C-alpha cells in the first residue's frame, strides 16, 4: 500500500552558489553524497538532485524537512539506481517501508520523486 508521495525541484545554479560554502555542504550532505558529487565533473548537479531527494522524501513521509532533518536521510548511488538511505532511529519512526526514488535533471533543474510503500 502506498503511504506517501513527494516530489521536489531544485535549481542547479542556485545549488552551485550554495555549495561554495563548505559549511553548507557539510551541514546538508552526508560524506557519501559529498564524495560522490565531487568525483564528477559538475558536483552541483549531484548536490541538487540529492537535495531534491531529501525534500521529496520529507514531503512523502509527512514529517516535513524539519521533522526528518537533512542529516537523517541521504542518497546512495548504486549500479541499479539511486537509493534513499535513512538513519536507524528515523527508520524506526517510519516502520517497515520501501522507498522508491527517481532522480532526473534537465537544463538548470534537478528533480526527485519519492513513493513510500508499506511492506
How does this structure look, described?
- There is one protein chain.
- 45% of the residues lie in helices and 35% in strands.
- By secondary structure, it is an alpha+beta fold.
- It has one domain: Ribosomal Protein L22, Chain A, CATH 3.90.470.
- The strands form two sheets. Strands 1-5-4 form a three-stranded antiparallel beta sheet. Strands 2-3 form a two-stranded antiparallel sheet.
- Helix 1 (12-18) packs across helix 4 (43-61) and helix 3 packs antiparallel against helix 4.
- The longest helix has 19 residues, at 43-61.
- The N and C termini lie close together (7 Å).
Give a nutshell description of this structure.
Helix content is 45%, strand content 35%. It is built from 6 helices and 5 strands. The chain is globular, with a radius of gyration of 13 Å.
Task: Tell me the name of the CATH class.
Answer: Alpha Beta
Strand order in the largest sheet: 1-5-4
| Shape verdict | globular
* Helix and strand composition category: alpha+beta
* Share of helix, binned: 40-55%
Question: Using only CA atoms, what is the Rg?
Answer: 13 Å
Mean pLDDT: 92
Amino acid at each position: 500500500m502506498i503511504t506517501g508521495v513527494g516530489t521536489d525541484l531544485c535549481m542547479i545554479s542556485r545549488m552551485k552558489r550554495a555549495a561554495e560554502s563548505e559549511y553548507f555542504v557539510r551541514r546538508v550532505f552526508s560524506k557519501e553524497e559529498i564524495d560522490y558529487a565531487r568525483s564528477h565533473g559538475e558536483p552541483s548537479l549531484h548536490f541538487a538532485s540529492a537535495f531534491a531527494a531529501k525534500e521529496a522524501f520529507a514531503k512523502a513521509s509527512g514529517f516535513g524537512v524539519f521533522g526528518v532533518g537533512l542529516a537523517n536521510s541521504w542518497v546512495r548511488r548504486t549500479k541499479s539506481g539511486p537509493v534513499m538511505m535513512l538513519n536507524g532511529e528515523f527508520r524506526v519512526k517510519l516502520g517497515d517501508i520501501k522507498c522508491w526514488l527517481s532522480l532526473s535533471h534537465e537544463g538548470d533543474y534537478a528533480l526527485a520523486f519519492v513513493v513510500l510503500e508499506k511492506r
